[in-house]
Amino acid sequence: MSDPQAYTVGWICAVTAESVAAQAFLDEEHRGPRHVSQHDNNSYVLGCIGSHNVVIAALPEGEYGTTSAATVAKDMLHSFPNVRIGLMVGIGGGAPSQKHDIRLGDIVVSKPGDGDGGVFQYDFGKTIQNCSFQATGFLNQPLVLLRTALATLRATYEMKGHQLVEDVNKNLKKIKKRSKYKQPDPASDRLYKSHVVHPSNSPDGCDIACGSDTADLITRPKRDEEDLDPAIHYGLIASGNQLMKDARIRDKLAAERDVLCFEMEAAGLMNHFPCLVIRGICDYSDLHKNKAWQGFAAMMAAALKDLKLDKAEDLSVARSPHFLVPFTSDPDFVKRSDIWAWIEERYAGPESRFALVGMGGFGKSQMAIQFAHRLHATSPKNSIFWVHSSTRATFEQSYRAIADVLALPRRHDPDVNILALVRDWLQQEDVSPWLMIIDNADDVKMLLSKDANETYLSYLPKRENSKILITSRSWDAADKLTGNGKMIFRVPTMEEAQALQLFHKKVGRDVNEAASLSLIKTLDYVPLAVNQAAAYIYRRSPWVTVESETSNVDFEDDLDVLRGYSLVAMTATPGLLEMHSLVQFCTKLWISEFGSADQWKTLFLQSASEHFPSGVFETWHQCQTLMPHVQPLFDKQPLEERDRLEWSKLLTNVSWYLVMLGNYSRAEVIVQQAVSTRTEVLGQEHPDTLTSMANLASTFWKQGRWKEAEELFAR
After folding, report:
1. pLDDT at site 567
2. Using CA atoms, how far apart are residues 75 and 707, in angstroms rounded to an integer?
3. What per-residue confidence (pLDDT) applies to 401?
4. Is the dihedral of CA 456, 457, 458, 463 positive or negative?
C-alpha cells in the first residue's frame, strides 16, 4: 500500500467524467493508501505525473457545490498531510463575449487580478431570468508556485502552441468507453442568443427544440492558424452553489466582472485548499445544456497537466531540518563562558539529556535561546524544537506545533495521541538530528502525571545523535528528566563584570561607572533584574539617571513598562508576547489580595470571546495559539447572564475549531454546554442558539450518529 505522506499534489474532481479524465492522464497508478484518517469518507486514486505523486478524490455521487468540495478537501488534507499543490480540474460553463471568444472544448484557467483571487463567489436567490446576484466574499489566490508555473506554461503555449488534442487522443486508449470522451463534431457547437430559451418541457435536443435559424444563433468566424484551437483563456471563474443556466445573468456577470466561466465547487476550496482551477468548457451556462461535450471538455482540462512544478516542496517534509524557536536572538546577549562551555561540552558528549537549574531570572532560558540560534547558524542540517513545559496545555500545544511543522501524517486524527506521534517520529533513524529544548520544566507532579496513556516524562524522545536541553527551577525535576545529577548545571547569578557589561549594553549610553557598579550590586547581579533596571533607565533617559535609580528601583506595572523590563518578552511572532512566570504568579497573588479576581475573570472571558475566531481553516494557527489560554474557562460556567452569553460564544467557536480539527467527541462535550446556556438564556429559536445547535449536529454527523444530527437539523 502507498504511504500517504509521499503525496504532494491533490487533484479534486466533481463528477465521474472528471475523475476518469484525471486517471487517464496519470503516468502511473499506485496502490491504495496504507491508511487514511478515521473519519475520512473520501475514496482515493493514487498515482504520479512526472516526478510528482498525485492523490485524486471525487465528490460523492450526486453531491455538488462548494460545501461538498470543502469537505472532500478537508478530509484529503487530514489523510495526506504533505499535499502542497491543489488542482480543481473538470468541466464548466463558458461565458463568451465580444472580448472573449470562448467555445466548447476550450479551457479556462483561474488567474488572479483586479482584486480577485481568480475565483469569484456569487450567490443567487433563484437562477431565473432577470434575477440579481451578489458577491459573497474575497477568495484566496493559489500558491505563488502555481501562479509562476502558469505564467511559464502560458508563455510556452503562445510561443510554440500546444499539443493538448494530441495528448487527449493518445490517452483515450486507456478508457474503455472512449467514444464519450472524444471530440464531438464542431458543428454541434451552437451559441444561441441570450433571448432564446430552451423549452423546459421538451425532451428534444437543441437542434430540434430550438432549431438552427441563423437569426437565433451568434455567428463566429473560423479560428485562423495563429489561434490556439482549442483555446486557453486565463481569468476570473465564477463559483456558486447553483447551476448557472441563465444566459442573461451570464452575460451580465461577463460584462460587469469579466467572468469567463461558471462552475459550482471552487469557491468551497480557495480559502481552505488554495488551488489552481482548470475548467474545460462543455456548455454556455444557459438552458441549452450539451452533455455531448462533457467528456471531451474534461479530457482537455486534464490535459493541462504540463504545469512545470519542478520547484515543488520536498516530499520528505518531515525529515528535513526545521527551526521552531519562538524567540529571536538577543543582540545584547552577554556570554557567560563557564555555562556556555558546559552546554557545548554536554551537547557534544554521549549523554542525550542535560539541564540548567536555577532561580527565576538567572538567565537559563536566555542561554538556551542563544545556544539554539548559534546551533542553527553553525549546524543548519539539525532541527531545533522548543517545548513550553510549564503546564500540560502548553506542553501539548508545543508538541502539536512540532507535528504541524513536520506535517506528520494523522496529526489531525482525533484518535491519535499527538504526544506519542511526535515522540515516535523523532525517534526514527532517518529523521535529521535534532535538539529539543524543554523550557520551564519546574513541576515534578506535572511531568510524572499521566494523560490517558503514559506520563509526560515518557513522551520525551530518545535518539542517538539528538539531544534534549532542559531549563528548570527545580533540581528534583531536572534530576527526574536527566536521570543523572552530573548532567545538571546549577546556574548562579552573573559575575560582576558580566552584569556590568549587560547593563551597559542595555542602557545604550555612557553612564557613571561607580553608580552602575553600585546599582548592579544592589540587584545581586541577577540578569533579569539588571536587564529591568537598564531598560527602565533607557526608556526614561535623560530624566532618570543611574544615580537616582540606585536608591529607587520602583517599577511601574503596566504592560508597556513590563516589556521594557523584560518581564514580558517579544517572541518571533509579531504581536505575540511571552510573559515571565514570575509576573504570572505575582499578578495572580495581587489580584487575589485586592479582591478583584472576579472582575479580571470577567474581562478575560470577554477578551477570549471576542478574539477566539471561528474554526475555519485559515484561522487554525490563531486558534491553536489561544487554546491553552482559554482552556481553563471550559468547565467554569459564569453566574452573570452577560458573562454566560460570552462564555457560550467562546465555546461555540472552540467547538467549531475542534470539529475542523477532527476532535469530534471533545467538540461535542464543549458545544453541549453552549447549547444549554443559549437555550436557557436566549430561547431555542434565537439565531445564536441555532448556530450552536448546528455545531452540535455537525459533531453528531461526523461521528456517524445520523439520526441525532437530523433531529437537531430539523429544529
Report:
1. 60
2. 22
3. 86
4. positive
Residue 89: inside a domain, yes or no? yes
Query: In terms of domains, do 536 and 566 share one?
Result: yes
Q: Write down which residue in 551, 582, 613 finishes a domain.
A: 582
Q: For the purposes of burial, counting CB atoms within 10 Å of the CB of 7, is it exposed (0-12), middle (13-18) or buried (19 or more)? A: buried
Q: Are residues 612 and 672 located together in one domain of the fold? A: yes
Strand partners, 460: none
DSSP H or E run through 376: helix 364-378
Could you give the CA distance from residue 96 to residue 477 in angstroms, rounded to a whole number?
72
Whose grid coordinates read 499535499? 83
Which residue type, as a one-letter code, is found at position 195?
H
Q: Amino acid letter at 650?
A: L
Same domain? 416 vs 481: yes
Q: Is 277 in contact with 116 (CB distance < 8 Å)?
A: no
At 614, is the secondary structure helix, strand, or coil? coil
For residues 24 and 176, what is the distance between their CA atoms, to the nearest angstrom?
11
**587 domain residue, yes or no:** no
Tell me the residue length of the chain: 715
- Could you tell me if residue 126 is inside a domain? yes
> Cell triple for residue 350?
554521549
CB atoms within 10 A of CB 251: 18
CB under 8 Å to 557, separation ≥6 — which residues? none
Query: Which ranges in 417-488 belong to alpha helices (H)?
Result: 418-426, 444-448, 475-482
Ordered alpha helix ranges (H), 4-143: 16-24, 66-79
| Same domain? 363 vs 427 | yes
- 560 and 614 together in one domain: no
CA distance 315 to 409: 13
Q: Give the domain range for residue 459.
A: 318-490
Overall domain count for the chain? 4
Q: Cell 508563455 maps to which residue?
A: 155
Q: Are 259 and 92 in contact (CB under 8 A)?
A: no
- Residue 206, domain CATH: 3.40.50.1580
Reported as a single tens digit per residue, the pLDDT across 516-538 is 788 878 777 888 777 777 777 76
Q: Are 479 and 351 in contact (CB under 8 A)?
A: no
Reported as a single tens digit per residue, the pLDDT across 287-298 is: 777 788 999 999
Same domain, 140 and 30: yes
The list of the chain residues with pLDDT below 50 reads 1, 124-134, 136-138, 310-316, 541-557
Residue 75, in any domain of the structure: yes
Residue 226 cell numbers, joined:
495563429
Cβ atoms of 320 and 328 closer than 8 Å: no
> Which residue, of 462, 490, 518, is where some domain finishes?
490
From CA 651, how far away is CA 667, in angstroms rounded? Answer: 9
Element (H, E) at 239: strand 232-239
pLDDT at 544: 45
Q: What is the mean pLDDT of the chain?
A: 81
